[in-house]
Amino acid sequence: MLVNAYAKSSKLSRLMLCCFVAFLAALIAWDNIVNPHIIQLNTAKAYAAHTESFCKKGRQLDAITKIKKLEAEKLNIDSSYLLKRLFNLESAQMFFTSIENLAHQNNINIPSLKLLAETPEEQEQSSKIGVSKHRAALNVVGKYTSVINFLTQLSQYEQKLDIASIAFSTKGERVDCSMIITIYVTEQGGKK
Amino acid sequence: MSNIAALGLNISSDQISLALVRKAGKNLQLVRSASAPMPENIIAGGNIKNPVLLAKTIKELCSKNKVSTANVFISLLVKPSLMRIMDMPREVGGNVNQFITDELKHYAPFSGKTIGHDFSAIKSSKSNRILLGAYDEDKVASLVQACNRINVIIRGIEPSAIGVVRALYAKHVAKKFGTNVVIAHLHDGNVTFCVFKDGVLDFLKQSVIAGKLNNEESIAAFVEECVSVRQYYDLELGETGKKWEFFVAGSAASTDQALVKQTLQDHLRDDLINICSDQSLADDLPVVVAQQVAVDIAAVGLAMKPLVTSSAELKLNLLPAKTDDAHNLQKFGIITANVAAAVFLAMLLLVPVVKGKIKTVQDATAKQLKVNNLVPMQELLSEQNHYVSQSKYLTERIAVLKSLEVTTPNKNYAVILRELQLKTPRAVQITKLITKEDNTATIQGLASSSEAIHVFVNFLNRSPLIASASLLRTELDPAGNGFISYNISIVLDLKESDPNAR
Asked: What are the phi and psi torsion angles at B50 (to 5°)?
């Protein structure tokens, strides 16, 4: 039967059959032998491309992180400098106790030192920004030069210290000087 | 034919002979020659009775002589068979095959049989002539199939006389102009006469000779056939006076050669008689014979079939088409299988190449990762986020602190008071000083005269710590002490009060 089919077939059909078998063999061989490795190769290439991209992004991220770190450090230095101008809770307490000593050193009396309460608006803002205002109404009595020296020493405080509403009156050689002292107090350490 | 060596097998009822001929450059070389008696009950009455046994006999002979059976050409041994020259009518045109088929149907011995045939155009002849070979295909096919089964691959079948002609043609027939050459071949009780005229086959005759040329009667009958051929040309064609040369091959050469030659010479006195004996074969054949061995000239001629090409080549191949197709199918199958296997092999060889590439890519990736030595992306991102949030917090905090003017120096009221002390004239006394948050201040006091007050105001205006000073009010002190009380408004210049600025 096969012989008859072969004998009746043309050269072209034989060639076609041979080509078809070769093609089929190639297809099967490709699918089962080569293609899995080709897929693996493509995967490895894709992984390599992703790795390259990943490394590039990693380097970029590392550089950005370093820049951000430098910026943060610079801001920290600036912030630290500014925070030095503020009292913390401890130094604020010490300040009000040291005022009396300062007055004694300058031979002046302190008839009254009254801490003023914060207004609700001020309290709200304090909790918001982490810096609270502490005000005190101070009344001192002494010689004019002594009062000047006292005020000079107050102005030489490293921390921000506002003196406002100075009102003084002379009573002979002595001067009665009242003022509002405002200090700014931050949380201890100055960090959130 | 791709094989460079071919095996010729001349089969007769009493003997089987082989000759292995190899092509060495331009020359042909007889590599091996052998013969063996034909076993009984294989061939009877000129026909193959037991093709399977004959195939085995062939295989055994070949194995014994260590010759390959991949390229075998055998002589035709079948009855009925036919070999003759046909004059083709001009009206046949190109449809020669159909004409021959029709002609053979009318040939009585072939009636009721499957007729196989082949033909070859006789070139250089004036008229349109062909050499025709026909045979009972079924009988030959059974032998070919039996041979193919035991790996004796038969590539061609032709009458042994054609083999003899091929063997002798180059040296004794070609280029012999003016001489008629007769090749008489005795094979299995038949004698075939091939007459060549100017190197071209001109006449072909087959006759039956009873028995072998081993007695006077049979020799006389053979000689009579030879003479009849000669006389046909002399009398019928009127070619008297031409030179004739006779070559006798086959069974006659193996019998009493001298007697055969003498008898022929007695009847054909003017002609040249040659008996192709085993001893003279080296001179007759265009084949290099290494040593003196018994050589069957027909077997050599059969083996020469795929190895020589000649203008007078009689290209008959009586191999049954169906067996040839079967062999070709097998060959085609092997080729196709080889192609498929080659494709598989190519794919298999491709795998290591692809694997090598994979390894290269993977190594490069691993190297890249090692060189970069990256911190895990998550850590980098969390670190970056930490610094970003810290920066944001600090920026906001700095903005808040700046809004509180923490960078501005503390107001130094002492400097202002000292300045007031210095600028106050002797006739002026400051009794009260009130400062406000908007850097303005009011000075109240007593003076001895209005002029002193104005001098005081002028002094204040000239002070670098005071932006402006203006007199608000003056009046006589209600205490009645003669002093003039005054009110002066000043605007402080706190920049100037900064000791560093001064």
From this structure: -130, 85
Q: How far off is chain B from A8, nearest CA to CA, in Å?
A: 10
Q: Is there a domain that residue B338 lies in?
A: no
Q: Which of B135, B156, B237, B253 is nearest to B195 (CA)?
A: B237
Distance, CA of B222 to CA of B235 (rounded, Å): 20
Is there a contact between A58 and B407 if contact means CB atoms under 8 Å apart? no
Q: Is the pTM of this model over 0.80?
A: no
HSE toward the beta carbon, residue B65, CA cutoff 13 A: 20
By C-alpha distance, the chain A residue nearest B365 is A48
- Angstrom distance (rounded) from CA A35 to CA A41: 9
Q: What is the H or E stretch that residue B322 is in?
A: helix B321-372
* pLDDT tens sequence across B65-114: 999 998 899 999 888 888 999 888 877 776 788 888 888 888 888 888 88
Does residue B364 sit within a domain?
Answer: yes
* Residue B328 lies inside a defined structural domain of this protein: no
Comparing alpha-carbon positions, the chain A residue that sits nearest to B418 is A148
| CATH assignment at residue B66 | 3.30.420.40
CB B305 within 8 A of CB B166: yes
- DSSP letters, A52-67, are HHHHHHHHHHHHHHHH
DSSP secondary structure letter of residue B70: S
| B257 and B392 inside one domain | no
Would you say residue B175 has pLDDT above 80?
no
- ipTM of this predicted structure: 0.72
Q: What count of CB pairs under 8 Å joins A to B?
A: 210
- Shortest distance, CA B13 to any CA of chain A (angstroms): 32
Q: What is the DSSP letter of B295?
A: -
Cis before B89? omega within 30 = no
State how far residue B250 is from chain A, nearest Cα, in angstroms.
Answer: 37
The alpha carbon of residue B118 and the mean position of all alpha carbons in its chain are separated, in whole angstroms, by 36
Whether residue A75 and residue B391 make contact (CB cut-off 8 A), yes or no, is yes
Give chain A's length: 192
Range of the domain at B380: 348-403
Number of Cβ within 10 Å of residue A173's Cβ equals: 8
The helix/strand/coil state of B318 is coil
Q: How far apart are CA B152 and CA B36, in angstroms?
A: 17
Output the CA torsion B229→B235→B240→B246 (10° steps). Answer: 0
Phi, psi of B220 (to 5 degrees): -65, -40
**What is the per-residue pLDDT across A73-98, written as a single tens digit (0 to 9) for each?**
999 998 888 888 888 888 888 888 88
CA separation for the pair B294, A150 (Å, rounded): 151
Give chain B positions within 8 Å (CB) of A75: 390-391, 394-395, 398
Tell me the residue type at B110: F
Helix, strand or coil for residue B268?
A: coil
Asked if residue B460 lies in contact with residue B490, where contact means CB atoms within 8 angstroms, the answer is: yes
Residue B378 and residue B301 in one domain: no
- Report the C-alpha gap between B297 and B160 in whole angstroms: 9
